[in-house]
Amino acid sequence: MGVIWTAITYSLEEAAELSFLCIGCGACDEVCPVEIPLSGILWRLKTLAAGKEGAPGRRGGDT
Ligand code: SF4
Predict the structure, then answer these.
(1) Residue 61: is its pLDDT beyond 60?
(2) Backbone phi, psi, residue 16, to 5°
């Protein structure tokens, strides 16, 4: 949920960076009382960031 809050209060770029901390287990989807699809939102942020800058660990021209 903190990543989503970061996207709202700071920027999508900062949120996208934090989204890579998520392992995609889906536990947050199971417990959210209002059924926010958090893991799907986090996945979308990851794909946006990866498409824009490459996956983490691949930045900085290390090909
Ligand atoms: S899917 Fe949800 S509970 Fe699982 S690591 Fe990502 S944010 Fe955490």
Answers:
(1) no
(2) -60, -40
